[in-house]
Amino acid sequence: MKILIINSGSSSIKYKLFDMPKEENSIHGVIEHIGEKGSKIQDHYAGLKLVLGKINNVDAVGHRVVHGAEKFKKPTLINASVIRKIKQCSCLAPLHNPANLAGIIACKKLLPGIRQVAVFDTAFHQTLPDYAYIYGLPYEYYKRFGIRKYGFHGTSHEYVAHEAARRLNKPMDKLKIITCHLGNGCSIAAVQNGRSVDTSMGFTPLEGLIMGTRCGDIDPALVTYIMQKKGIDIHEMENVLNKASGLKGISGVSNDMRILEKRAGSMDGRSELAIKIFIYRIKKYIGAYTAIMAGCDCLVFTGGIGENQARVRNEIYKGVFSHLNKKPAVLVIPTNEELMIARKAYQLIKRHPAIKD
Ligand code: ADP
After folding, report:
1. Which are the catalytic amino acids?
2. Number of structural domains, the chain?
3. Domain range holding 213?
4. In this structure, is residue 125 part of a structural domain?
5. Is residue 13 domain-shared with residue 106, that is, in the same domain?
6. 3-class secondary structure, 274
């Protein structure tokens, strides 16, 4: 079965075609500059037409959808009611869900009758217990506004946790795994017996670790304090937290770990400081997640930094586990969210050969 995986962003469509269940990937690529000034590709419909021009045959489509809130705990066959619900989740991910939907709607027009599956970034973390996902805010905010920890990068955490169990030749439901997805966005998850029990990103992807340009955990009182001190409005403040903070904000140089690594040491103290803070925060989370799971059998690194930065991995591992008698296995596993989406879409379609629209 040929399954086309679509990751539709606001101005791009990333695509990958898998032959399932062989898991062979023949065609992949990205269409960029969709809807941008001067671009020949006006919208997602035109972008997807270009993608389909490169592909002979599609049996089903798997879509990455960023936010499924509490409505979607599993991969879901897309029909009109699912599209409505994904739209309803857009207020929680205004930059992402509408772009994901644009890809879904273009596929529906261009591939009528072809089954489509939505796989949600938030779904893997829907197993968090309430004491992990409820914030210390008035409880009614959860009920009225859906304010809670959702967590993101779920498909990546799930993929590398499965792959870790496979490589260790142990069943997932017997393992305590900590997965560190360290890319431009960074998050960490505690995966106990195959279920996510806690994760560092929260209501939005801003919470948790220090990231390329995002601040991660800060004192919430700083938000209004900085707004007053700098005389800036909500939009500017959001920009500071999301785009001008993290590795970039601390170093004053770059959000790119490769550049910081080159400049670190005596030459540039602030690049060194940014790396130290980045590592320190990860160590704190690993310590906390080892405590809540009462142990850790395996530590997994993935994402551009996790896969390539040996210094970061070594300092984290030595810092947290060197004094312990029982040390966890450490694995570096390149993530493959598209393959995970293809597997889920394939499993779902096999079980539900027909859909109602
Ligand atoms: P995204 O979250 O956008 O998918 P990536 O997973 O590609 O990002 O991660 C980007 C980060 O990974 C950057 O900080 C970059 O410096 C780092 N990185 C990527 N490749 C390498 C490499 N070969 N060596 C060191 N760091 C790398």
Report:
1. 121
2. 2
3. 170-337
4. no
5. yes
6. helix
